[in-house]
Specification:
Blueprint (H helix, E strand, L loop, with lengths): L10 E11 L6 E11 L7 E9 L10 H19 L7 E6 L2 H7 L11 H11 L5 E5 L6 H17 L1 H7 L6 H9 L10 H15 L1
Parallel strand pairs: 1-4, 4-5
Antiparallel strand pairs: 1-2, 2-3
Length: about 210
């Protein structure tokens, strides 16, 4: 059972993220998480730990956004269990921008995908070990640090393996997309996909309307 804690206790905030680029499923899946801590009456959260990396073998069946998101949650919870005494009175809040994953963890959505079931079960098992914990969905714009790290993982993986770049070259953003983003004041990532470029362009246009 998940229980909440009173506001007087110390607080730990966890932000997680996952991606699968340049296409989903079957691309390159990466995870990330950030741990922030606030002690006593301090108002400002201090970053205590962050981690990012590969969530599945590139171009495999397990390389999906959802696998990456679940991996971020699992790695964060495992780190917390190793670092902290989970029977203490610290308030822990887990936040992510995937509505599907958050609602599955909170048992609002059923888990149907075969590859996700063991990851869901792992998360629930880890959560049961904590005394006080809360799960929250947040918009992507409020998850920028974890989002930045998952993208960093993706960029570094491509930098380290030229063969991966060759395999996905046809999925990279076009010159027209890159020029349009630049004209709108957006500096694109080095290895931006066509799909992500379209999302950024659409987001910019919707803000202007």
């Amino acid at each position: 059972m998940i229980r909440l804690v009173d506001n007087s206790s110390n607080e730990i905030q966890v932000y997680f993220d996952g991606l699968c680029q340049p296409y989903n499923p079957g691309g390159i899946a990466c995870y990330a998480f950030v741990i922030l801590a606030k002690k006593g009456h301090e108002q400002k959260q201090q970053q205590q730990y962050s981690e990012y990396g590969l969530a599945a073998e590139p171009f495999s069946d397990n390389a999906t956004n959802n696998v990456a998101e679940y991996t971020g949650v699992i790695r964060a919870l495992e780190w917390l269990l190793e670092k902290y005494n989970y029977n203490n009175n610290q308030k822990i809040i887990i936040r992510g921008d995937s509505q599907l994953v958050i609602n599955q963890i909170k048992d609002k959505y059923k888990v149907r995908a075969v590859k996700i079931i063991p990851l869901y079960q792992k998360v629930k098992s880890l959560l049961s070990k904590f005394k006080y914990i809360k799960i929250e969905w947040i918009p992507r714009d409020n998850n920028k640090e974890a989002d930045k790290l998952s993208n960093k993982a993706y960029q570094e993986i491509l930098e380290s393996d030229p063969k991966l770049l060759q395999n996905i070259s046809q999925h990279m953003a076009t010159e027209d997309q890159l020029n349009l983003l630049k004209s709108q004041g957006i500096t694109p990532e080095k290895y931006l996909s066509k799909i992500e470029a379209r999302r950024l362009i659409s987001k910019k246009v919707s803000k202007q309307e």
